[in-house]
Amino acid sequence: MTMTTDKKNAGGRPPRYTLDQVHAAITRLINDGTPRDEIDAAGVKTVLCEQHGVTKGIDTRSLEAPVAHVLASIAEEEEDRLIAALPDTVGASVESVVGAMTRELQLLVARQNAVCLAQAQEECEVLRRDKVNANWRIKELEREGEDKAREIAEMTDLSERKIAENKALTEEVTTLRAELDRMQKAENPIDRIVLELKKPGARDEIKSMISEIMSRDVDFQEASVPASE
């Protein structure tokens, strides 16, 4: 592993330790039996100060990133050594097993994907049918609305015609009533005679007048006949 000795900290000042020293401190802790998951910046700082003469004034927080980097590098190196120590036959067997597992995993994912696709297609089909039904219902409602509007327009037109007809009839009745009233109120000699004749007792007066006229006529005739000599 290449170690950088001139790395600067976040504040721009060169650190009072090097990455090689951090690596050496962590290695010392591991060799002394400290579990890797218990190694932290505070423990590394103690080793740096005691064994590498690093000042105790360094900030523990500035050590956190270098410590994590070195621990990851050490773990990776050990893994590489372990894998390199495997016999070739083991490597081939592992690759075969991994290949089979990869295929099984791919098949599992593919089947699940097919199920998901089928469900998605079914849901899409349901949504499509719902959309078609909704569109059909909307058109039906629009047609019903148009029919209702047409009926209302026809009823309105009929109502207006009926109102006009009623108005004309009312005017005609008013005119006829006025004419009847005028005719009933009309005064002329014939109307007066007719009205007089229709009165109770008029018949007796007429008979009396006729009798008087006839009596006068007889007297006149007798007066007109010459006396016999």
Describe the structure.
About 80% of the residues lie in helices and about 0% in strands. The chain is an all-alpha fold. The chain has a domain at about 20-90. α1 crosses α2 (about 40-50) and α2 packs across α3 (about 60-85). The termini are far apart.
Write the SSE topology.
Blueprint: H1 19-31, H2 41-51, H3 60-84, H4 88-185, H5 189-198, H6 202-224
Helix pairs in contact: 1-2, 1-3, 2-3
List keywords for this structure.
disordered N terminus, mainly alpha, 79% helix, 0% strand, rod-shaped, 229 residues
Tally of separate helices? 6
Distance between the termini: 200 Å
The average pLDDT is: 78
Number of strands: 0
Global shape: rod-shaped
Question: What is the share of helical residues?
Answer: over 70%
Beta-strand proportion: under 5%
Global structural class: mainly alpha
Which stretches are poorly predicted, pLDDT < 50 over at least 5 residues?
Answer: 1-14
Gyration radius over CA: 66 Å
| Biggest sheet architecture | none
Order of helices and strands: HHHHHH
